[in-house]
Amino acid sequence: MKNLSKILLAQAAAVGLSAPALAQEAMTIDQRVNATFATVTGPFVNFIFAPFPGTAFPWIVLWLVVAASVFTVYFGLVQFRFFGHAIALVKGDYSDPKDAGEVSHFQALATALSGTVGLGNIAGVAVAVGIGGPGATFWMILAGLMGMASKFTECTLGVKYRNEYDDGTVSGGPMYYMSKGFKELGLPGGKILAVMFSVFCILGALGGGNMFQANQAHAQIAGIVGDYPGWITGLIFAAVVFAVIVGGIKSIARVTEKVVPFMGILYVGAALVILLVNYDKIGWAFGQIFAGAFTGLGVAGGLVGALIQGFKRAAFSNEAGVGSAAIAHSAVRTNEPITEGFVSLLEPLIDTVVICTMTALVITISGQLIVNPETGQFVLNEAGSAIKTIGDTSGVALTSAAFGSSISWFPYVLALAVVLFAFSTMISWSYYGLKAWTYLFGEGKTTELVFKVIFCIFIVIGAAASLGPVIDFSDAAIFSMAVVNIFALYFLMKLVRKELNSYSARLASGEIRKFKT
Amino acid sequence: MGMKLLIGLDGHGSGERAMAHAQMLAKLIGDCELIAAYVIEWSPYSFQTQEENAQRHKRREEEISTAKSRIIDPAVKKLQDAGFTASGVVRHGDVAETLNALAEEQGADQIIVGRSSEGGFTRRIFGSATSNLVMSASVPVTVVV
Description:
The complex is a heterodimer of chains A (517) and B (145).
Chain A: H1 2-14, H2 19-23, H3 29-48, H4 59-74, H5 78-81, H6 83-91, H7 105-116, H8 119-132, H9 135-160, E1 163-164, E2 170-171, H10 174-185, H11 190-225, H12 230-245, H13 250-277, H14 279-295, H15 302-318, H16 324-329, H17 337-344, H18 346-366, H19 396-404, H20 410-441, H21 445-464, H22 467-509
Antiparallel strand pairs in A: 1-2
Chain B: E1 3-9, H1 13-29, E2 32-41, H2 50-81, E3 85-93, H3 95-106, E4 110-114, H4 120-126, H5 129-136, E5 141-144
Parallel strand pairs in B: 1-2, 1-4, 2-3, 4-5
Helix pairs in contact in B: 3-5
C-alpha cells in the first residue's frame, strides 16, 4: 500500500503535479479531479511520448514525420500536383448537376475543417511558440505541407471503404478501411487494428476532442469574468452538448456550424490587420522563425525542442494521419473516392499553413515573448520549461494577450471564438467517437446513448482539471490513433496509388470532364 | 416537331397559374411538349453538421420523392389527362439557375413560371427567384401573374 502511494506520487509529479497538493487534507473538487486524472493517465502519456533512448526526441513525432514524408514521395508530391484540381473540385467544376442535393465537396471540407480549426490553432500554437520559440512555426508549416499527403491517403480510403446502410446513411473511417482493405489484400490482422483504432479514437474523442476543449473554454471564460471553479463551466457545457447530441436539438448545432466559419474568417482577418499595422516587423518575425528553426535561439530544448513542438502542434491541429478526417469525409457520395482525398488535402493547408502561422506571427510580433536585449536570446521562466512571457501567460491566454496588445477589445471576441470553436470541435469529435463506439459495440440507440453520456461526463472532468495533465492526455490519445492508422496506411497505400493512377489517366484523356466551363 | 415548354412549379398558386397559361399556349401552338419542373432550393455552399452530412443522401431521396408525389406527378397527370405530351423533373439547386440549366438540357424553347410569392426582406436583399431567372435565362421566359 505504501509502495503504491509512492508510485502514484511519483507519477503525479512526473505529469507536472506538485506533490504537496496531494498531501493537503482538504482539496477542492477541481484539485481532486486533477490529481486523480493525472495519476490515471500518467503511464499512458509516458509511453506515447517516450523519447528514443539516450535522446530527448519522442518516437511518436518521428513516426508522424516519416509517414508524411513517405506519402509525399510515394504519391509524387500529390499535394502540389493536384492542388489546382482540388480547388476546382471544391468550386464544383466537376460536380454533375444531376447529383445536386448530395453532400458537396465544399460541405465535406467545411464540416471537416470545423472539427479541426479551433483551439489547436489558437491555444496549441501558443503552447508551441511558448515552449519551442518562433522557430517551432517553421517546423509546423513543414509538417502541415507534408501532412497534406497523409490526409489525402486516409480520406481516399475512408470514402472507398465506408459502410452504406439500406436507409441511405453511411458510416466510414479508418476502422472500416482497416478491416475491409486488409481483407481485400488478403492480409491478416485488419480487424485487430480496427478495434485498436476504435479504442484510441474513443480516448481521443474524450481527450483532445473534449477535455482539452472544455478546459480551454473554461480558461477563457474565467479570464474574463474572474476565477471560479471549472466544474461549473463543465456542467453548463455538458448540458448544452447533451441537448444537442442526445436531445437532438439541431438548432444549437446548426447555429454553431454557421457561426464558426465566420469566427474563423474574423480571426484570420484580425491577424491580418495586426500584421498589416506592424508590417515593418513581418520581415523580422520571419527572420526569428527561420533562425529559431535551426538554432532554437536559446529556447528550452534548443533546435530539437522547436522541432518537436512544431511537429506536435501541427499534428494536433490538422489531425493529418490521425484518421479523424477519414470519418468526416466518408459522408460524401461520389463515384470517385479519390476526389475526396484531393479535397481533404486542402485542410492541413488552411488549418496549419495559413491559420496557425497567423497565430504564430501575431505572437512573435506582439513581443509577448521576453527576449534578453543583450544576447538576443529568449529568457526562460523559473522552471526553465518555457519562454518567459509578459504576465506569465501560456496557451490561449498568450494568444489573447498577443492580439490584445494591438486590438484592445479583441480578447473578448477571441473568448467567444474559443468557446464556439471548442463547442463545434466537441460536437465533431462526439461524432467521431460515436462512430468508433458503434463499430465496437454495434449500431443501436442504447449503445449510442451510453457513449454520449460518457462523453458529457468527460466535459466536466476536462473543465475541472488543470491544463498540464489534460493537454498531455489529449495529445497522447490523439497520437495513439495515428500510431494504428499510419501503420495500416502503409499497407493500404498501394490501393490509393491504383486509384490515383487510374484517375489521373482518365483526367488526362478527358474522360473526367468539367460540368462547369 | 413543335415547341418544348418548361413549366416551373413552386407548389403554390403561382405554379397553378403557370400551368394554366402553359396549357393555353400549348393549345394555340398545337404540337407541343410540356415539361413540369420543380426545384428544391439547395446550396452546395451551406454549412452542415457531421450528422447532417451522414444522413444527407437519405434526406435527398425523401425530398425528391415528396416533391414527385405531391407536386410533379399530379401536374404531369393533369397535363396528360388534358391530352398533352408531358414529363416531369425534380432537381436540387438555386431555383433560377437550375430552371435555366434544365431548359438548356431539355432543349426547351420557353420557360413559364408564376410570379413568385416571396416578398419583403428576402426579396429586397436577394431579389426573387423569378426576377433572377428573367435576368439570367438563355431562352424566353413568360412570367404569369
